[in-house]
Amino acid sequence: WKNAQLPLRYGLEEECQNLDAASDIQLLDLGEHLAKKGHRGVKIRLNGQLYNDGSTTPVTDSGKKFLSLIAALNHDTSYGGISRTFSTDTNDWWQGADPAGLLESISSSSQDTQANLTLFNLRKWINETNVAHNMENEDDLYIVMCPTLWDKLAAEMESRVGGYKPHDHQRQGIRKLDLDGHQIVSCPFLQKSATTKKWVFILNMQYWELRIHTKRNFKMTDFKWQGDRTRGYDYWLARILYRGNFVCWKPNSSMWLSNVV
């Protein structure tokens, strides 16, 4: 389990103008505003940790951050306390799927090899690898990429009647396409750097889970004045508390490609 909290606070001016003031003077319901902003902040923080905060170095099992997609799918690194090495056939069943083919034909990782994003290659990465071997239904797969790569793929798919859905949006600015029953989404976070703009994830959602402990499931404490504490300050403080982790139960069902153009 990983433990985390997000502090929320307001000061004297906010107390006077937004909490105790009459309704015709109050600028906004500060408590409700802070709670909404705080929970939104937690979502943004978890979104960053999901993508390893944009780093190619995986977070570790013993680290403080939630585990990431990179931690689960990066080849030849330990995950869940299990070491993985292609060259020595060490726990290949626990590796992320490799774009070159099935595990029995893999002796070294090719997830960092530069590849061109085309419909042909995307189908190859799915149908000719362990991704297909572990897939039960077409809608198990969730394919994630940056807006630049998504736009490139959309341009190739525009003439295909069943695939292009230009107005199909999800929350957080995510856009969707459909290919062979698989959802392809554009994730704005991956547009943030030259490194993440080359990332493509092919995820079997049957085996991914955001585990949150029931006793610390984004609960928010009451606001408490800090002025009566040692070296206290004249503001009120609350915290959003959460405990959990992001887990993949079968890394071999999914794939991360780190150098797609």
Based on the model shown, name its key terms.
four-stranded antiparallel β-sheet, single chain, 261 residues, five-stranded mixed β-sheet, alpha+beta, 6 helices
Summarize it.
22% of the residues lie in helices and 24% in strands. It contains six helices and nine strands. Strand 3 (175-179) and strand 4 form a beta hairpin.
Secondary-structure blueprint:
Elements: E1 2-11, H1 12-19, H2 30-50, H3 69-73, H4 119-127, H5 130-133, E2 141-145, H6 147-157, E3 175-179, E4 182-186, E5 200-204, E6 208-220, E7 224-225, E8 235-248, E9 255-257
Parallel strand pairs: 2-4
Antiparallel strand pairs: 1-8, 2-5, 3-4, 5-9, 6-8, 7-8
Overview of this protein structure:
With 261 residues, the protein is α+β, with helices and mostly antiparallel strands. Helix content is 22%, strand content 24%. The strands form two sheets. The chain has a five-stranded mixed β-sheet. Strands 1, 6, 7 and 8 form a four-stranded antiparallel β-sheet that branches. The model has no long low-confidence stretch (mean pLDDT 89).
- Could you spell the SSE succession in H and E letters? EHHHHHEHEEEEEEE
The helix count comes to 6
Cα gyration radius (Å):
22 Å
Characterize the main sheet.
5 strands, mixed
Q: Poorly predicted ranges (pLDDT <50, ≥5 residues)? A: none
Helicity range:
10-25%
Overall SS class: alpha+beta
Total beta strand runs? 9
The outline comes out as elongated
Strand arrangement within the widest β-sheet reads: 3-4-2-5-9
Measured distance between first and last alpha carbons:
36 Å
Q: What's the mean pLDDT score?
A: 89
**Oligomer class:** single chain
Beta-strand residue fraction: 15-25%
